[in-house]
Amino acid sequence: MRDINFLTETNAKPIWHPMAHPAEMRANPPKVIMKGEGVMVTDIAGNTVLDAVGGLWNVNLGYSCDPIKKAIADQLSALPYYSGFRGTSTGPSIELAHELCEWFQGEGMVRTFFTSGGSDSVETALRLARQYWKIRGQADRTKFLALKKGYHGTHFGGASVNGNANFRRNYEPLLPGVFHIPAPWTFRNPFDETDPERLAKLCARALEDEIAFQGGDTIAAFIMEPVLGAGGVIVPHESFMPLVREICDRHEILLIADEVVTGFGRTGAWSGSRLSGVKPDFMTIAKAITSGYFPLGATLIGGKVADVFEADKTSFGAIGHGYTYSGHPVGCAAGLAALAETKRLRLNENAAARGIELAAVLEGLKAKHAIVGDVRYKGLMAALELVSDRTTKKPTDKKTMAVVSEAAYEAGVMLRVSGNTVILSPPLIITAADVTKIGEALGAGLSKV
Ligand code: PMP
């Protein structure tokens, strides 16, 4: 690799970074991360900080998981790649598909379609949902419903079901036939409802209303994150997903649970669907499937959908969809090792226990700092929404957010800022002492503004 001076000098010049303005990145180049160890990362200037972002919601096992590193090295040496397209397969992909179906048996998942990441997984679920209805002879069922504030990746299908204007406007026109209903977000919602259970009912009623308006027999699927992540950690009341399931069932609409963030213990349960005892028809997973060590994702398919595809006698049943890296043997080997470690360390239990401590820390910060308008959390996904005025809920500006995150960095903790929200998604292996450290760094940041 070239030397540090070259990297520092060149930094953002040849790269367009995701979710950033190229000119802004050139003017204010990103931190260059050189090393990771445990839950800590070290930047090019030699600062070592606790990674409260967990990579990007994915490095659940931290940066020193030797079993994953070894599995990757071993598989690279045995077979670095072979295709999973019709006619060939690989050992690790067979084994991981089997493991995933067992792992998510409680959610009713029976088949695995491998992808290269979350956006691919969402796209796969949307496409298979439409195909399901073609096979069933209901070709009119092409529409999708989704939640405002939901995040489902950046492919055209995923961007179309996305519920955040920032990810839509620049790329319109998006997929036709996609409609959004309000998210059960107590801090901001069109009903001014602050009670989570009542709000869940109102949002479910909005779904019912939209279905009546569109015609249930025109809708292929409803997609939702069990806990909304990138939209600012919006935690629906536990009654919401069961209500959605019941409505979808009544109208025969497929339910896609986007578990790209919530999939491997982050919420304190093994999946977000399991939190509320719901069996979706598809689950999209990625990110922590390899703890971020290799790009991999999967769309898991529920029994009802699998039966229809596998019993198909029409001309619609062959899957005309897939990726060069669907079932990448190195990714699947990484996935097998990550899954084994995740189970062995019972990461869901640590996420739940540390999550309770983190929640107490965040509530304490809210009580102390008027700038904190709202705190939201479930397991080890959490957010602080900052406002310049608690009554009007006016969001804080970009500059204020930068001051908070820089001060926290100086205090030894990496945070992620999204709009006026600080998002926390640390590795699931963090300790109680790490939680305290995150709280102290956040406190240092908030004290500066
Ligand atoms: N769905 C959800 C819920 C996500 O959070 C993300 C990524 N943050 C995606 C899909 C897209 O995943 P990827 O960035 O791996 O394409």
Automatic annotation (TrEMBL):
UniProt cross-references to Gene3D superfamilies, sorted A to Z: Aspartate Aminotransferase, domain 1, Type I PLP-dependent aspartate aminotransferase-like (Major domain)
Keyword list, A-Z: Aminotransferase, Pyridoxal phosphate, Transferase
The keyword Disulfide bond is assigned to this record: no
Family stated for the protein in its record: Belongs to the class-III pyridoxal-phosphate-dependent aminotransferase family.
Cofactor(s) needed by this chain: pyridoxal 5'-phosphate
Organism: Mesorhizobium cantuariense
Phylogenetic lineage: Bacteria, Pseudomonadati, Pseudomonadota, Alphaproteobacteria, Hyphomicrobiales
InterPro entries reported in the protein's UniProt record: Aminotrans_3, Aminotrans_3_PPA_site, PyrdxlP-dep_Trfase, PyrdxlP-dep_Trfase_major, PyrdxlP-dep_Trfase_small
Superkingdom as given in the UniProt entry: Bacteria
Pfam families, sorted: Aminotran_3
Protein name: Aminotransferase class III-fold pyridoxal phosphate-dependent enzyme
Molecular function GO labels: transaminase activity
